[in-house]
Amino acid sequence: MADKTAAIIAGPRWWGEVQTDRNGEPTLRENQATRKAQAKREREIMQEIVNELPEDCFVIQGGARGADSLAFSLCNTRGIHGAGVPYFGSKGRQGGYLRNQMMALLLNGLKLQGFKVKVVVVQPPEGLTTGTKMMADIAEKAGIYVKYVVYTEETEPTDAA
């Protein structure tokens, strides 16, 4: 069991998506082509991250759109199993914090069972979003290794850990 791995992949909610209005039109029309190209590159980066995971990896995710759901979908395509932790909507603004805490607790539980654990954070050029930073901070405080994957549109992603 010592060779098993468990991971959380965290990142922005817009990761790999083109934001649209209620009519399905891109919200930033003047940047429509640029955003589509960025979203394509973000999906490629996420595929690279998922491809680096061992096949027997167990992935924990928060169920949010963007990085969470994209990573989970790509993991499922590879046959990598996992579990989602729901947003605690009834707790108001505390909901995201509670979800992130629960994901870190699950990861630590797997660590106690002999799993190698990590959190992979995708970081766009403009920096971490609030929720992604919160997840990384919670994991680091719990003694969980956090790998930051930083990229710009012009360069390949780099490990910043």
Could you characterize the architecture of this molecule?
There is one protein chain. This protein has 161 residues and is an alpha/beta fold. It has one domain (5-159): Rossmann fold. 39% of the residues lie in helices and 19% in strands. It has 4 helices and 6 strands. The protein has helices at residues 32-52, 67-78, 95-112, 130-141, and strands spanning 5-10, 58-61, 81-84, 116-123, 145-150, 158-159. A 6-stranded mixed beta sheet has the order 3-2-1-4-5-6, sandwiched between helices. Helix 1 (32-52) links the parallel strand 1 and strand 2 (58-61). Helix 1 crosses helix 2 (67-78). It is globular. The chain starts with a strand and ends with a strand. 33% of the residues are buried. The model has no long low-confidence stretch (mean pLDDT 83).
Observed structural traits:
161 residues; alpha/beta; Rossmann fold; six-stranded mixed sheet; 6 strands; 39% helix
Put the structure in a nutshell.
The chain is α/β, with parallel strands linked by helices and 161 residues long. It has a single domain (5-159), classed as Rossmann fold. The protein is built from 4 helices and 6 strands.
